[in-house]
């Protein structure tokens, strides 16, 4: 199957296209600064008023901004943080990707294939959407693994083992391979730890950086992956093989930062900076194509669609069996991949 193609000028005028594709360095810097300002403010809140409620709030905010940094790295992978490629890559790598143990150039190579082959058999992200719809019980198991850090731990373990390379390699080769795969990421995180330690807050790195990274960031990454391509109406139609999900203030704060919810618009015009996607959505909504666009009113509506498969295993007489399978960890599928966008 081959996906249909749409040209930008099929739904935008030349003037509109020129406006929305403008890439402004200060806007990219401002969005990165916004993410880090919220992270620092959340840490300061716990330092100033340490209690379980402020800690929980901080984990939710920091986890969402860690996803936000990944989203801004994604903008950098599309060259959208700055019109200057050196500046774009510098901002994307050192302030977005490396702090969350990612890498822009490797992500770009993989991600452009997703754009070229969206929802087709050779889409590298198809594994993220293909299993849906699933049962609510299956999603609850996945949610619990994400929330308790099991998913994050397995992903980071696999990343570390890959960076270390085969045990039979000589030490020098393994060290060079580790630096290539994970060196700058570890360096940036070491600087973060050292800065917090110098401020007398060494504990904030494990509790207010690693915990959100391994827990809430995993929860909302899965929700974002589901919203973008799961249970879409038509895998070959660019207006219906991805989705825009409307997000209110709380959803933007805790689940979908930096306009990541405008995924349909991003796929139509993947070179548009994320801060211009709302304008693209407005223009599309006023066009004859509006009726075809796959949209949902909120993330809860998407999760209802994605968990619509009947819980047959939970019928009377089968519940005990499903509980045994859950305890045995036999339903782990789909946790190793956190790509998308």
From TrEMBL:
InterPro entries the record matches: FA_desaturase_dom, Fatty_acid_desaturase
Source organism, top-level taxon: Bacteria
Keyword field: Membrane, Transmembrane, Transmembrane helix
GO molecular function annotations of the record: oxidoreductase activity, acting on paired donors, with oxidation of a pair of donors resulting in the reduction of molecular oxygen to two molecules of water
Gene Ontology BP annotations: lipid biosynthetic process
Pfam families named among the record's database cross-references: FA_desaturase
Segments crossing the lipid bilayer: 29-49, 182-205
GO cellular component, one term: membrane
Region feature Disordered, mapped onto this chain: 311-341
Ranges for domain Fatty acid desaturase: 51-286
Biased composition (Low complexity): 317-335
Protein name, entry field: Fatty acid desaturase
Organism of this sequence: Bradyrhizobium icense
